[in-house]
């Protein structure tokens, strides 16, 4: 009787596409590190060396099973790597019918119409899927053994052509570097991926050489070759690699008739030829450098004809800059001023003009009409062009091809492209020139450079993984309301930025392309909240029952009537609304309407700047319009460990040279300082401000001397220590740090600082009193000696002082025993209370009055000094004190 094998219950299953390559196999093993309880289902492969490698080693090292060995109904989570297409995972199709099945996808291929719907989708256009998973492993701090690291390395090496394909990215190199640190054996990888060909394979390779023909497709050399046999040829893709390497071929399409099927393997090292798109048009798949397709019921000639039809429609003609550029260029010399630029551009109807060195035609910058106009409106017409021109720009030569032009103009969003020969400006290409040419043939634009597709990446999975459900519900509720009202709504700014950074941020800002105040009222009625509207700015705040606040704004364009002015508001679109933001990293929007929920709107390269850790302003006059943005730039730079970009730093220095801080109100400066002092590391912000001369620009008395820096350093330490104690009252950080910033400033001079920062009369009075109390306490502390002075004396010195002043004393003291005892006061004595209250005193027959306070104070002193431990002892002392005070009311000595 045949024995029935019991099937395995597998709650989590990992698999890849059928006919797996090394990247698929390696990605499965990498995924198993992220899902350690998962069962791996190998989908099979037609590649001989891969199949042998798998059979000989991998099954013994990892938890691989055959699909027939598991119970399909037990699968709750399906993890698919190196594909998202349903048709490419037929071996696990029964699992897809499971109710409530969750799906996670990791892939590096382009989107397709049959992509699976999943709760988690991680897609990166990197050289391999294994790279994506290795970065996840790195982020989680997981370790690999040598066998794992080597296998993962094989996946990356294969799919990047040992880092020789144009699709290879910096992330692939980073992943390989990490794997090497984990023990990856490169010799094993080299041996595996460079097997000697068998005699039969050499015969097939000779047939491919014999049948190879080169065709000129729009100026691009494309090689087509073919072979024919009645049986399947393993490692066909390997033969094509050998063929390309031996002939130094850039683009090849190899057709192999094997029995009743035609196998097409395509490889491209030319960015103008996207083989993935061509093969996808025939029902196959891959990416722009490597792809394949299998065709049934067609002849070699028919498949070849289909390819030629696709070639002529999808391969870009080799148009070069010389055919596109405008010449001679209209230029302006770098010693001219902003008003000269406006006059020149108005005369010729230009949006931008190249700036050249006055001694020749060397291009040194670009100035835009918008920037020059704004400069005139701010009365900066006499300022030299060199102050506000864009210095960071790309140039091309006359023989540069169309793809590079599109990459700069469309992808990098440089509206005007100077053309140089031998370092001399000979012409320009404008965005209009390029668009006019592409209108006639839009298919020339590669998908990777389409502006819409780049800025509309969907990050719904990141939103789901990084936000609490309550916040997701609010986003979807707002999106549904916007749909009902017939308008578009977006989450914007730092909220979106921090989703990409993976940082917590529950400060939700919404922008509506419609009436923001009306939207806020309707939204509040749906979610249960109240509205505070600001008609002047067309904004509103929805305050929910749990004190969650949702800011709602009308899509608007802000403009400034003069430098450092408050903004005037006009209705506008989301693009213009984002353009008014301070920095690119904050100029992000997230669509929340149901049809396009989760799509990221990025007009200004925010994702790129986040990736490069760069703080960059949106336009040259940003700091002229609002100098407080300088303080924000420093705050974000230090918070995120970014760097202020070179052009942005130059503009900061320009704004400081114009003394724009003097035009700012103290209220606005103080608001930004308070935000800085609420940061985790306020000192690094203050040091950066000092380095740039901002402290003195706010007020000369705020210059950070070495002594003040030392005090501020200690203040940060004691502040962090106090926060860890979770004591009341909470610190008001600005009071603490402005004490440090004004250390050593005389009392009458301190009022100059408080008035510059626009303290209210109450704030000024309390701050000056606090400084006075600190000064008196410092004198008294000098006379307090550990072991000789009573602890109650320390208590009486410190107790009247607000907690900010006590922390300042702790930071300022150079005697360790005083710091130690101040910390004891904060941690224990400050919250200590006697066990006797006013009612107890009344029960003794003591009449309420000043004597109550005197008795309770003396009881506290006695308790601190350890003379009365129990309530009974305190009641006895209270009676005695009452008697003594009654006999001599003027007595105020310690009991």
Return the CATH topology of the largest domain. Answer: inorganic pyrophosphatase (n-terminal core)
Q: Based on DSSP secondary structure assignment, what is the total number of beta strands?
A: 30
Determine and state the CATH class of the largest domain. Answer: Alpha Beta
Total count of helical runs of at least 4 residues: 37
Helical amount among residues, as a percent range? 40-55%
CATH-defined architecture of the largest domain:
Alpha-Beta Complex
Assign an overall shape.
globular
- Quickly count the domains: 7
Strands of the biggest beta sheet: in what spatial order?
A: 22-23-24-21-20-27-28
Indicate the proportion of strand residues: 15-25%
**Structural class from helices and strands?**
alpha/beta
Name the CATH superfamily classification of the largest domain. inorganic pyrophosphatase (n-terminal core)
Organism: Pseudodesulfovibrio indicus
Family: Belongs to the tRNA nucleotidyltransferase/poly(A) polymerase family.
Cofactor: Mg(2+)
InterPro entries: CBS_dom, CBS_dom_sf, DDH_dom, DHH_sf, NT_sf, PolA_pol_head_dom, PolyA_RNA-bd, tRNA_nt/polyA_polymerase
